[in-house]
Give the backbone structure.
Amino acid sequence: MNDTGPKAFPRDRFVAMLRRMPRYGRLAWNLSRHPKVSGRRRAALAAAAAYLVSPIDLVPGFIPVAGQLDDAAVILIAIGLALRSMQPPERAAALAEVGVSTDDIDDDLQTIRETYAWMGRNGIKVAVRTTQVLARGAQRTLRGIGSRLGRGGDSQPG
């Protein structure tokens, strides 16, 4: 699977995002201590950190991938807010220090959106297939019951 179709899983971009996560953690830490980041923006970073460790999430952590993507989105949004409170040269220096760019952050948020969309599309396909299988099984069961009833009543032991 590769990134080639509009409905394909964005595998290469997803892997690149995962590789950047430790750098985002360092960036969030650095920004939370940076004197040019306003108190409100630091509070957003603290709230994002609290969300990461909280057992209460929009998407529960026990759901593979989806449960972690909302955590990543929250921290990336908080980082973006913190960066906006800095002047461009300070922002560029903070990003360069950890080896990421604003384009990386924007791309990774887009990757999260596309991954959720891919998961939604494929989840619907699985649900439809499962429903079809269950419906066929129910039809066979009802035909079996109907044929037993048609042979002179019900087939319970007597």
User: Anything to note?
Assistant: The longest helix spans residues 102-150. The two ends are 59 Å apart (CA to CA). The chain has a mean pLDDT of 85. The helical segments are 11-33, 39-53, 66-84, 88-98, 102-150.
